[in-house]
Write a structure and sequence with these properties.
This protein is mainly alpha-helical and 182 residues long. Among the domains are: 6-62, Orthogonal Bundle (Arc Repressor Mutant, subunit A), CATH 1.10.10.1400; 68-124, no CATH class. It has eight helices and two strands; from the N terminus they run H-H-H-H-H-H-E-E-H-H. Strands 1-2 form a two-stranded antiparallel sheet. A hairpin with a 2-residue loop joins strand 1 (106-112) and strand 2 (115-120). Helix 2 (21-27) packs across helix 3. The radius of gyration is 29 Å and the shape is flat. The termini are far apart. The model is unreliable at 140-146 (pLDDT under 50). Keywords: Viral genome packaging, Viral release from host cell.
C-alpha cells in the first residue's frame, strides 16, 4: 500500500468501511459530482484492489475470523440440543449455566414475568451453509439424470409375486428403461 498515492491510500481505508466506492471517494477527498465514476475507476486499479485485499486480510486476522472458527460456530448451531438448556427437573438453566456450545446456539432469550422465551439459530440455514462451505453436494446433483433408474408404480397391497410380475412385465415392454435404447 506504500506505493499508492496519499489519496488512493485514503480511498482504500474509506472503502473497507462500507464497500461503497462513491462514498469512499467522497470521504477520500474526491469531488461529489464525479465520486461514482472515480470510485468505479479506482476499483479497477490493480494496486488499489490489492491494497483493499491486504486490508481485508489484516481485518480478518485482527478479528480472528478464520474458517476454523466459522465452522466451529456453525457446528454448534447444527448440532445444538434443546435438552441442554434444562436441568434434571425440566427447569430452564440460567444463561450463565449454559455450556459454550449451547449458549452459541441460542439466538435470544426473553423473560416476561415467570415465562422464558428461548430462540435458537435456524438449524436448517446453518446446515445449508455448512454443506455449501464444505462443498458436500455438487449443485447439479439433483439435475443429473439416472439413465438406468426409473419409477414404476405398483399397488401398495401387491404381494412379492405380484410386484415381481409387474417388474418383469415392465422390463419386457421397455428393456432399456422408460427412455428406450441408449
Amino acid at each position: 500500500m506504500n506505493n499508492l498515492r496519499l489519496k488512493h491510500r485514503r480511498f482504500v481505508e474509506e472503502y473497507v468501511i462500507d464497500f461503497n466506492g462513491a462514498q469512499a471517494a467522497i470521504r477520500a477527498g474526491y469531488s461529489k459530482k464525479t465520486a461514482r465514476q472515480i470510485g468505479q475507476r479506482l476499483l479497477t486499479n490493480v494496486d488499489i484492489t490489492k491494497a483493499i485485499e491486504q486490508r481485508m486480510r489484516h481485518f480478518t486476522m485482527q478479528c480472528e475470523l478464520k474458517t476454523e472458527a466459522i465452522l466451529r460456530q456453525l457446528t454448534r448451531i447444527c448440532f445444538s440440543d434443546i435438552r441442554k438448556i434444562f436441568d434434571s427437573d425440566g427447569k430452564p438453566l440460567k444463561l450463565h449455566q449454559l455450556d459454550d456450545d449451547t449458549a452459541a446456539a441460542v439466538s435470544s432469550m426473553e423473560v416476561a414475568g415467570s415465562s422464558i422465551k428461548i430462540r435458537f439459530w435456524n438449524k436448517i440455514d446453518a446446515l445449508s451453509l455448512a454443506v455449501r462451505i464444505l462443498n458436500l453436494f455438487k449443485e447439479d446433483t439433483l439435475a443429473q439424470t439416472q439413465e438406468d433408474k426409473y419409477v414404476m408404480i405398483v399397488p401398495a397391497t401387491a404381494t412379492h409375486e405380484e410386484w415381481s410380475k409387474c417388474v418383469e412385465q415392465q422390463t419386457k415392454q421397455k428393456p432399456n428403461g422408460p427412455f428406450g435404447p441408449k
